[in-house]
Amino acid sequence: MFSLLYQIFYQPLFNVFYVTLFFIYNHLSFGDFGVAIILLTLVVRLVLYPLFHKGMHHQTVMQRLQPRIKEIQNNHKGDMQKQSEALLDLYREHKVNPFSGILFLLIQLPIFIAMYGLIRGLAGGVAQPLYSFVAAHPEVNAMFLGLINMHERSILLIAVAAVLQYAQGRYSLGRAAAQSATNQEPSAAEQMGRNMVYIMPGITVAVLWSFPSAL
User: Fold this and answer.
1) By the 8 A CB rule, do 161 and 44 touch?
2) Burial group, residue 161, by CB count within 10 angstroms (0-12, 13-18, 19+)
3) For the chain, how long is the longest CA-to-CA vector?
């Protein structure tokens, strides 16, 4: 099963990203590997924007529906069948699927895994799973803006990533609060979301600490 997924998803995506990255490196990034990675990331984000936009729209609608979902759950607390039927009617009325968020993530996951494998492999000098017709690129200039070695850990980039993670969490939390705008006590999920604003930067630092700067 793993071998089949590898051949169908991972290896083709890996080769597409490899060719694209080195096209950018040779023609658009002025020979800066860090800039090439940033531009490749922007290209991927643009390609995935329709999925990202749908995911954000779904998240916004689901957040707006939270008071009505809580009301249905309270009104049918003793009857799970009626509760399920009322929730399905609510979702149909607003044309949302509670499982869409997971579906959007699963569609994007192979792409992110392939990008991770590509950058990790290049930064760590690992053999690349290239097709026979894809030429291997010689060693790259690993210095980002002449300051940061992409093959090594950078405390500066780790700190920037953690700060941006916190800022993104605060922004998302502010949007959610503005959309709900109720006097009800926050649900367990909402409280967890607030806690994650502070937890995720710490996780970011812990995870990135052992990674090369390219990642």
Assistant:
1) no
2) middle
3) 66
Cα–Cα distance measured from residue 57 to residue 99, given in angstroms and rounded to the nearest whole number: 13
Residue range 71-99, pLDDT digits in tens: 877 877 777 788 888 888 888 887 777 77
Strand partners, 143: 149
CB 212 within 8 A of CB 120: yes
- Local structure of residue 148 (DSSP, 8 states): E
Task: Give the residue among 120, 134, 126 at the shortest CA–CA distance from 23.
Answer: 134
Weakest-pLDDT range from 22-31, 48-57, 183-192: 183-192
Q: What is the pLDDT of residue 186?
A: 57
Main-chain phi, psi angles of 148, to 5 degrees: -120, 125
Q: What is the pTM (predicted TM-score) of this model? A: 0.72
User: Is residue 122 within 8 Å of residue 24, measured between CB atoms?
Assistant: no
Angstrom distance (rounded) from CA 210 to CA 214: 12
Please give the angle made by the CA atoms of 145, 149 and 154, to the nearest 5 degrees: 105
Average pLDDT, the chain: 81
CA 158 from chain centre, in angstroms, equals 17
CA 74/CA 70 separation, integer angstroms: 6
**110 CB contacts (<8 Å, ≥6 apart)?**
9, 10, 13
Cite the DSSP H helix spans in the chain: 2-5, 11-27, 33-47, 49-64, 66-75, 80-93, 100-124, 155-180, 188-208
pLDDT at residue 103, as a whole number: 74
